[in-house]
């Protein structure tokens, strides 16, 4: 049985991610202990709120250096995905992030559509990526965000809200999804299952 660990970032969606994994029949641990994190087979990095606050949390919990050491697959969720990038535009200055995905997050240009981008939207996988295996075309996922990563070579799923943006990314062993799979019904459950079984 694989060891699944949610990195304890102190963010509000840690419990809902745990319940989503447990509903699939897996045991999961929430931890920030380096020995537990580095011994895991699969890791989750959840996050909600602002990049400034989240990076401060990671620093206070000695998690920045720990996440840099990770060699196993890690899935960042919502803000957790944005933290994997180089930086995040917030207020008057950019916040330095973890630097695993060669992209910066910026305020979405949504035209006449309201911000935040909140609710259900479809995601188009790129090149039949295994993270989206057995998920029907035009499946809906649940989003809540005002900032997004642009599309790039790292994009494995795209979404459109005013303009196209990266809904899912991969850079080496680091994966990220901008939506909340733990709140995205059957499609979200299948995506979590795919990540655990990849």
From TrEMBL:
Residues 5-196 form the Glutamine amidotransferase domain. HAMAP family: HisH. It catalyses: 5-[(5-phospho-1-deoxy-D-ribulos-1-ylimino)methylamino]-1-(5-phospho-beta-D-ribosyl)imidazole-4-carboxamide + L-glutamine = D-erythro-1-(imidazol-4-yl)glycerol 3-phosphate + 5-amino-1-(5-phospho-beta-D-ribosyl)imidazole-4-carboxamide + L-glutamate + H(+); L-glutamine + H2O = L-glutamate + NH4(+). It comes from the Bacteria. It is found in: Cytoplasm. Its EC number is 4.3.2.10, 3.5.1.2. Pfam families: GATase. CDD domains: GATase1_IGP_Synthase. Heterodimer of HisH and HisF. Pathway: Amino-acid biosynthesis; L-histidine biosynthesis; L-histidine from 5-phospho-alpha-D-ribose 1-diphosphate: step 5/9. IGPS catalyzes the conversion of PRFAR and glutamine to IGP, AICAR and glutamate. The HisH subunit catalyzes the hydrolysis of glutamine to glutamate and ammonia as part of the synthesis of IGP and AICAR. The resulting ammonia molecule is channeled to the active site of HisF. The active site is at residues 78, 180, 182. Keywords: Amino-acid biosynthesis, Cytoplasm, Glutamine amidotransferase, Histidine biosynthesis, Hydrolase, Lyase. PANTHER family: IMIDAZOLE GLYCEROL PHOSPHATE SYNTHASE SUBUNIT HISH. Its main location: cytoplasm. One of its GO terms (molecular function) is lyase activity. This is Imidazole glycerol phosphate synthase subunit HisH.
């Amino acid at each position: 049985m694989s060891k699944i660990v949610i990195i304890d970032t102190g963010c509000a969606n840690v419990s809902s991610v745990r319940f989503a994994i447990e509903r699939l029949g897996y045991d999961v641990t929430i931890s920030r202990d380096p020995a537990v994190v580095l011994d895991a087979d699969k890791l989750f990095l959840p996050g909600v709120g602002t990049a400034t606050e989240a990076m401060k949390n990671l620093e206070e919990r000695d998690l920045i250096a720990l996440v840099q050491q990770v060699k196993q697959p890690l899935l960042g969720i919502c803000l957790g995905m944005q933290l994997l990038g180089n930086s995040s535009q917030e207020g008057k200055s950019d916040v330095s992030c973890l630097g695993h995905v060669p992209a910066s997050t910026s305020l979405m240009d949504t035209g006449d559509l309201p911000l935040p981008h909140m609710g259900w939207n479809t995601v188009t996988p790129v090149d039949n990526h295994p993270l989206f295996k057995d998920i029907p075309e035009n499946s809906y996922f649940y989003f809540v965000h005002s900032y997004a990563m642009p599309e790039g070579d790292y994009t494995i799923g795209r979404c459109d809200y005013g303009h196209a943006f990266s809904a899912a990314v991969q850079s080496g062993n680091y994966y990220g999804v901008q939506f909340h799979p733990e709140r995205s019904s059957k499609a979200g459950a299948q995506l979590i299952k795919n990540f655990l079984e990849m």
